[in-house]
Design goal:
This protein has 145 residues and is an alpha+beta fold. The chain has a domain of 79 residues: Beta Barrel (OB fold (Dihydrolipoamide Acetyltransferase, E2P)), CATH 2.40.50. The chain is built from one helix and six strands, in the order H-E-E-E-E-E-E. Strands 1-2-3-6-5 form a five-stranded mixed beta barrel. A hairpin with a 5-residue loop joins strand 2 and strand 3. The radius of gyration is 31 Å and the shape is elongated. The mean pLDDT is 80.
Length: 145
């Protein structure tokens, strides 16, 4: 009895799949007469480009062009240097306080949120991680003379 029940279920499934396939073949989807909205000329990028993150130390700053490079150490210990361009819309934070591009220094540890521009990486935000305050050197006792 169990064998017949199984055959009946498989037969019903096959029949249903056949009916669906036949109906789909008889009614092809209607083509839309409306053209998709055209993108403005010169812009092939999506409206909201995908943002990425990069963490490393500032290696070089070209202030006149608001370009800077950041050095990242890969897992195998090899350094990787990547160049970014800051725009007037780029937000710069030192810790939680607002800062400017001029506050960026070589060897600062930074986290950069960036988007892919035309041939360059454009910084959306730069977060400068404040370095720990140096500990004062312990006062060494001077031997009496």
């Amino acid at each position: 009895m169990n064998r017949f029940r199984r055959a009946r279920v498989f037969g019903a499934a096959a029949l249903s799949a056949g009916v669906i396939a036949y109906a789909a073949a008889q009614n092809p989807p209607a083509k839309s007469t409306e053209a998709p909205p055209a993108a403005p000329p010169g812009s092939s990028a999506p409206k909201h480009p995908r943002s990425h993150f990069f963490v490393g130390e500032v290696a070089e700053i070209v202030a006149g062009q608001t370009r800077f490079s950041v050095r990242e150490t890969l897992r195998d210990g090899a350094p990787k240097v990547t160049f970014f361009t800051a725009t007037p819309e780029t937000t710069v934070l030192r810790g939680k306080d607002r800062a400017t591009f001029a506050d960026l220094r070589v060897n600062d540890h930074v986290t950069i949120k960036y988007g892919e521009g035309v041939g360059e990486k454009q910084a959306i935000s730069i977060r400068i991680t404040p370095s720990a305050k140096p500990k004062p050197a312990p006062a060494s006792p001077t031997p009496p003379s």
